[in-house]
């Protein structure tokens, strides 16, 4: 007689307890930068009466936007695990190219604008392709690009114009329409707000949507966190990283076009050192130097902190020699706060 075997009782699956709202907030990369932004604004609202005026806020937003547009691309690249030290001089390269190509070819300035875009995207492609081809650190590749572009900016400008600055293109066809796109004012309640602020918000919204709502965003986090594992599951690591370098090229082109049409004449030696501000704003915003973590919004908050700091010191009447000290102090404090928040979140 066969003995019936009693069925083994089903073992319930272990349930993962959902994280509380507080832990989810603490895990956000923007948290520490947001706290820092609040502290900076409170400080200057208290010590600098001109800082409280609407026109002053517009100036802060303008300073933040010119830094923030480039930081959008740099933040995405850092999340993808790479650096671009050529971004600062890349801004100047695009503005010089747009100006000299239009002037020397005597064409509509929009032709110069488009050719400068092709050049900026090409520089980004070159940096990304070389990083992926050689497997050398992007720090070294883009440092070389930085030095080469710095030399080319000065040498070619002198060769073409006979001077260290470009010729004026203010009276050329297309200048007014291009200025309206890249460097005009939008009046809101009697306050003039630079159009770069609105372009910054648009680019930030697109970058955030890509990171959070598309598979490309997943690829960016994956190649920054663990490129080999990402490649093993089918992520196109090479083209994702090249695309990120080209995104930096696009953002630097946009800032370069703003400078061209805001000031007309461009100096070939500008832009050196700005790449450090782009990277610093991204780091303040929560982007890890090792990649795989961060957000575009955090980078924007970092740019806002720097914009408020540089302008707030002026409005407070402090010695402007202290500007870089305060920027460095903000960077150090924000980095330590980021580390503290991540450690506390990991322990809970």
How would you describe this structure to a colleague?
The chain is mainly α and 348 residues long. Helices cover 70% and strands 2% of the residues. The protein has 14 helices and 2 strands. The protein has a two-stranded antiparallel ribbon with strand order 1-2. A hairpin with a 2-residue loop joins strand 1 and strand 2. Helix 3 packs antiparallel against helix 11, helix 3 runs antiparallel to helix 13 and helix 9 packs across helix 11. It is globular, with a radius of gyration of 23 Å. The termini are far apart.
Structure, briefly:
This protein is mainly alpha-helical.
Topology at a glance:
Layout: H1 21-26, H2 31-47, H3 54-79, H4 87-105, H5 109-134, H6 138-161, H7 175-182, E1 185-188, E2 191-194, H8 195-213, H9 215-225, H10 227-232, H11 237-263, H12 274-284, H13 296-315, H14 323-347
Antiparallel strand pairs: 1-2
According to DSSP, the number of beta strands is: 2
Strand content: under 5%
How many DSSP H or I helices?
A: 14
Question: Overall mean pLDDT score?
Answer: 88
What is the CA-CA span between the terminal residues? 57 Å
Order of strands across the widest beta sheet? 1-2
Rg is: 23 Å
Largest sheet: 2 strands, antiparallel
Q: What is the share of helical residues?
A: over 70%
- Helix and strand pattern: HHHHHHHEEHHHHHHH
Judged by helices, strands and strand pairing, the structural class is mainly alpha
* Apparent shape: globular
Q: Which stretches are low in confidence, meaning pLDDT under 50 for 5 or more residues running? A: 1-16
């Amino acid at each position: 007689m066969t003995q019936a075997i009693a069925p083994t009782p089903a073992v319930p699956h272990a349930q993962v307890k959902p994280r509380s709202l507080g832990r989810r907030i603490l895990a956000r990369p923007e948290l520490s930068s947001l706290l820092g932004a609040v502290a900076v604004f409170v400080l200057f609202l208290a010590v600098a009466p001109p800082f409280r005026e609407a026109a002053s806020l517009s100036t802060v937003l303008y300073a933040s936007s010119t830094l923030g547009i480039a930081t959008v691309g740099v933040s995405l690249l850092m999340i993808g695990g790479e650096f671009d030290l050529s971004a600062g001089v890349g801004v100047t390269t695009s503005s010089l190219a747009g100006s000299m190509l239009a002037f020397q070819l005597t064409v509509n300035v929009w032709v110069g604008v488009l050719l400068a875009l092709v050049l900026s995207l090409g520089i980004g492609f070159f940096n990304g392709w070389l990083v992926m081809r050689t497997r050398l650190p992007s720090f070294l590749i883009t440092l070389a690009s930085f030095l080469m572009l710095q030399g080319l900016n000065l040498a070619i400008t002198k060769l073409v114009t006979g001077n260290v600055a470009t010729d004026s293109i203010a009276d050329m066809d297309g200048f007014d329409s291009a200025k309206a796109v890249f460097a005009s004012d939008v009046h809101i309640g009697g306050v003039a707000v630079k159009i770069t602020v609105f372009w910054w918000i648009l680019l930030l919204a697109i970058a955030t949507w890509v990171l959070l709502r598309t598979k490309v965003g997943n690829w960016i986090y994956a190649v920054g966190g663990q490129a080999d594992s990402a490649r093993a599951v089918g992520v196109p690591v090479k083209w994702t990283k090249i695309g990120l370098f080209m995104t930096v090229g696009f953002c630097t082109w946009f800032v370069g076009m703003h400078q061209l049409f805001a000031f007309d004449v461009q100096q070939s030696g500008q832009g050196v050192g700005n790449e450090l501000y782009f990277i610093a704003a991204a780091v303040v915003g929560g982007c890890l130097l090792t990649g795989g973590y961060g957000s575009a919004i955090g980078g924007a908050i970092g740019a806002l902190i720097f914009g408020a700091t540089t302008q707030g010191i002026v409005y407070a009447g402090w010695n402007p020699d202290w500007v870089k000290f305060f920027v460095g102090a903000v960077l150090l404090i924000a980095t330590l706060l980021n580390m503290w928040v991540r450690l506390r979140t990991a322990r809970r």
